[in-house]
Amino acid sequence: MKALTFASAWNVDLADVPDLHVIGDDDVVVDIAYCGICGTDLGIVSGAYPVAVPGVTLGHEASGIVAEVGAGVTTIAPGDRVVINPTPYCGRCRMCRTGRINHCVGKHGTESGVSYDGAFAGRYRTTSAFVHRVPDHVPLRAAALTEPLSCVVTGVRKIQPASLAMNTYVIGAGPLGLLYAWMLSLKGLTPTVVERSPARLDFARDRLPAGSRAVASLSDADDLDIVVDTTSHFLEELLPRMAPGGTFMSIGLKERVAAIDTMLIGDRSLNIIGSIDSLHGSFEEAFHLIVSGRVPAERLISHTVPLADYRKGFAALGCDIDARSVGAAPEASCKVLLMPGEHGA
Ligand SMILES: [Zn+2]
Ligand SMILES: [Zn+2]
């Protein structure tokens, strides 16, 4: 089968690797239908987020059709349409035992698409607890957004607004920015999305929850109560503008050093918080929100590209693998899905 494998920054290749089959009794092997390109993947490929193990198959936001199950699997059968939870945890390390499974140190080797072979491939192998059956009425395309939405569920749980009238802003209209807008809206807030790329702004405008709007920049008059920065770029600039009791959440994974006045944090009762990954049922919650139609995941997909054309998929997000450069997205792009096989539905 084909698999998008990582060697080092900018050195990724569509390699021929052996087909995967079940090994253990609890194994499930999935024929991948769709796997989304994540900001993490852009960071790995471009070298900005150096976390991947050389030789690994990338990709962690996937859905597909079960091909094989181990002898002990009773909950899932070949032919089932499933979404994959790519974030196992050991349950034994100090992080897991103290309520922080998203920082499990025992999962090294099982972080899909980073240190364990991921789903930019014809097949993916996992265990039965980490696949969920997708109802017939839900497209596998939409189900592929469960993992990024799960990360957003984790983050939104940490935002505890003093009032639902708080002025709320999301910086960046990529997939996470739009998913944050939807989740903050479900929480009762009315977020404004700020996006400087005209193409992305256009794409976002008719994909926002009721009452929300998308603008090209913050104005000096904006009174900032809650800011979710998906870009890593705005802490230094915006912290002095945060209203007392405000919350600045930073979820970007771009290295960026900021100089901030620590006095402001105490004097204005500010919260500066971060968030990553799935935590405590967030994956199941995200899956429910997609299955029930509360979050219109499928509408956030801008491109669906065959795996063989992965360079086009990355390029649509501003990551030009041939030129080894990362820039602004050249077109209206949001969630880009790669399609390894013929199982699209
Ligand atoms: Zn992701
Ligand atoms: Zn652990």
UniProtKB/TrEMBL annotation:
SUPFAM superfamilies the UniProt entry points to: GroES-like, NAD(P)-binding Rossmann-fold domains
Residue span, Enoyl reductase (ER) domain: 15-338
Keyword Oxidoreductase found: yes
A Pfam family this chain is assigned to: ADH_N
Keyword Transcription regulation assigned: no
Cofactor: Zn(2+)
Keywords in alphabetical order: Metal-binding, Oxidoreductase, Zinc
Signal peptide positions (record): none
GO molecular function ontology, one term from the record: zinc ion binding
PANTHER family to which the protein is assigned, alphabetical: ALCOHOL DEHYDROGENASE-RELATED (PTHR43401:SF5), L-THREONINE 3-DEHYDROGENASE (PTHR43401)
Protein name: Threonine dehydrogenase-like Zn-dependent dehydrogenase
Native organism: Catenuloplanes indicus
